Amino acid sequence: MTDKYEQVIELAKRRGFLWNSFELYGGTAGFYDYGPLGAMLKRRVENIWRDIFVINEEYYEIEVPTIGIEDIFIASGHVGGFSDPLTECLKCKEAFRADHLVGDVVENPDTLSADELTVVIGKHNIKCPECGGGLGKVYEFNLMFKTSIGPGGKRSGYLRPETAQGMFVDFPRLLKFYRDRLPFGVTQIGKAYRNEISPRQGVIRLREFTQAEAEIFIDPRDKTHPKFGEISDIILVLYSQKGQEQGSSEKMSIGDAVQNKIIAHQFLGYCLARTYQFLVRVGVSPEKLRFRQHMKDEMAHYAADCWDAEIQSDRFGWVEVVGIADRTDYDLKAHAKQSETELNVYVSYDKPIKVERFAVKPNMGVLGPMFKGNAGKIANALKLLKSEDLSGETIEVVVDGKVIQVDKEAVSFENVTEEVHGETIIPHVIEPSFGIDRITYSLLEHSYFEEEAKVEEGEEEEKRIVLRLPPEVAPVQAAVLPLLTRKELIDPANKIVKALRKAGILVAFDDSGTIGRRYRRNDEIGTPYSITVDYQTIDDGTVTIRDRDSMKQVRAGMDGIEENIYDMIYKGKSFDEAGRKV
Amino acid sequence: MTDKYEQVIELAKRRGFLWNSFELYGGTAGFYDYGPLGAMLKRRVENIWRDIFVINEEYYEIEVPTIGIEDIFIASGHVGGFSDPLTECLKCKEAFRADHLVGDVVENPDTLSADELTVVIGKHNIKCPECGGGLGKVYEFNLMFKTSIGPGGKRSGYLRPETAQGMFVDFPRLLKFYRDRLPFGVTQIGKAYRNEISPRQGVIRLREFTQAEAEIFIDPRDKTHPKFGEISDIILVLYSQKGQEQGSSEKMSIGDAVQNKIIAHQFLGYCLARTYQFLVRVGVSPEKLRFRQHMKDEMAHYAADCWDAEIQSDRFGWVEVVGIADRTDYDLKAHAKQSETELNVYVSYDKPIKVERFAVKPNMGVLGPMFKGNAGKIANALKLLKSEDLSGETIEVVVDGKVIQVDKEAVSFENVTEEVHGETIIPHVIEPSFGIDRITYSLLEHSYFEEEAKVEEGEEEEKRIVLRLPPEVAPVQAAVLPLLTRKELIDPANKIVKALRKAGILVAFDDSGTIGRRYRRNDEIGTPYSITVDYQTIDDGTVTIRDRDSMKQVRAGMDGIEENIYDMIYKGKSFDEAGRKV
Q1: ipTM
Q2: Which residues, in sequence order, are bridge partners of residue A69?
Q3: Any CB–CB contact under 8 A between A71 and chain B?
């Protein structure tokens, strides 16, 4: 019995959506090619993401290299901590994720250290799953692909494990671009890499993949969102921390979830909503979509809250496809430290506030004669003292590493009131991070249907495979089918093809086989509209348009066909409006 | 005196087109970031390329990994031959391109071997340009970034030096996708890498860059193009082999150039034409564009013909931005050999042809008793003989490495006439290969103008920087400017912003500074249209639209403004039609 993954992958390979990479040379796990239809599908998914996040949220996209230098990944923690525990078979030399091998004998194997895993493997006498050989000592294997920039191996480079770091590194430039004002967001769609030890889940676990990430820099004192009202009524399936403890998810509006403190704040809630809208728009079934909150022990120590969008797949169960986190000021602080550069924003108050402050006033008339050339340094050191430092008999300061005692009469102090116009803050970062490959696979799976239908009027029903892709993401957007391969039908068909292409619509011209067979070929790649040119076209200039999902047909004019199709794909025009029922 | 490169780069950095990568950590030569405006500009350039080559030529795009396995690059020759000659300073350890150091003392230094370069450096006593130290022996440095796939360093991976190889490797799958018919084309837009020894030309020589390549597989017996008539009248500046010998380029129609055998054939000419149309559409000046043919000694030995599109830049002179080559069957043959797989196509003839063939008929009645178990093998060997092999006294065949003599009477032969329905051919490959980064930089340079103009009516003239980008590629497509920051003007301005975004138009809202200053800010980033909301807007629902290039203004309705702007950007509507002159 084939499962849905097999059905989808069979179709995907046969029709040019997904191919194993380097097949000509035997292939390599963890790499997939997007064939002609797959690449177009993926591109359309990315463009819808852009429409939502770049155009409509105004989080401009940037593009930085996929190779990064070492400093970046020292700061981000990837050099030190981006690893999986590895054990090798002593006999066949095959490598395995150690935590995957002990899943049956311990709980939460991913929380164990390499040494602990070595002990577990020894104690339970776990052997190589391939050949039964003994397993070696477990060690941490860094998952970044490493390379060398320039000759001589002097400068290490890494293929980025996420697109995010590029946006943190560019923070000073971005802040200027946005004229020093918060909040602002920036996005990136591009390749990221993870040198998996032994990937075994097809398109779900890739060594090279595409991420779409947004980093939104916000004022930590205000995590509301000005457009929250637009989305607060959207109902999501939430699988919260509490829900996971109780083993049940619940449907709830985003407004209520923020109100009830299930989602930490409005800004995060807003991102969940836009994520939901994006996923459904590209073709994920809302019934197979939920938002799971990270459990406390699963969340990064610095994160304020974190939710994954998970999509249900037939073979893999609930698969994480998006992570949405409030990462607080962790990333900017880490890069500030590594680069020894301040990464912060001066925020003006709406009106100045008055602040009382303790102020030390050194008396230079006394200090000068007493300390001569050192007096200035000592005065500066005195200014930094707090009121408690001045309460003793003598006052001590440290200058150039030496403790110096200063007579009390050389110093006076008072409380002063100052007007403060703003403050310097480190922005917090809200990060929605999308796995485009998993999303693309998921929507293929959710769009895949097999049903019984007649190929042509009057014939027996037989299996029809149909990809019910939203017209906006379908790779081929229209098929043009001359009823017969005769010049008088081919010519107008070619004219239609040309008009559609000029309007930017991807068209397939197909003149081989019966019309029924050609409909089938287009159904299984998800072509939403098939346009047939027949003898009536010559008479009255009309063609039939067939709707993929309902298999209904309408008769419409050849003139303006490109606008007719365009409006159905992009402007929500319904098929019933496209022409006269046949 | 600053040159144009400096002017453009200053603007590009300041306004968010191009930034040095990893600036926070001191930067690394050969890497550039596309900032918010640069990334959008580049994306639009790529999308126009797609419109021309993917949608309109129907060369479907695929997407394969940027990491490739070793076999691919052994076949392609990159493991063996993709290198530059390197010499290191013995004192300061800096690395240099040896051929660049000897440019003043020998001609065509790029034709010299590493050993020859070592000799030249010694003979002319050439020293390190940085510190004057002695230079080491020259060796060939491979320019591919190398990495390791999976743990243990067992499997080498390389960052692809070009996108092309992915399309050759997928040839069997692609051929099936196109239902075994020639010609077909396939494209890829993506990252490629070249680990330059010491890149010193800013954005012109990058270690990570974006290519857009098409591989078009054609029947070697027919290099005409069915749509040649559409483009044969286009006039290009051609700098042919002969022209280069004479030191002059000439203007010529593509039709004439093919007719006169300057361009090898129609298919190549067609690609030159589409390349020209693409470059001019994205904003390259036709006056600063020429097509240069590769000289015979510069062309790869297998290539039938090769032309570069070159763009003139102020600092770098003529820069290659596109290469268009007829690569014959070289790539498919190389991969067929390395993979031990046949990469070819069976082509049916329109009608069968009759072929006379010499046929050997072994007489099994004689061979059987004579050779027993070996008789079958010997019979097969006999069938492969040619008529001249049968003219001697005895007949010899080699079976299992042994020479066997066969009696003449064991063999008869005759000429037979056979009907042949087709043949198996190895397609030839036409490859247009575009350097997207260089094109993007070039069009910025060609669009950059400084002029004197009034900021506002009645004021003095002062310098205006304007990027005259085609509206289709301008990153920000419209600016919305409320005359004053008052609610009654901000509200309709926001409404316009929302309507434009819904139509997919990238809008900047700007309410700070005088209107004149805001126009200037938008002029220098190339925003083609600025929409100003003023008090008349409240009265009659109209706004002004200002044209970037002419600085003219028209008054147009707020309702339908998104369609008005959209049609000017994408549908060739002229500015004069956009509203009533002010």
Answers
A1: 0.91
A2: A157
A3: yes
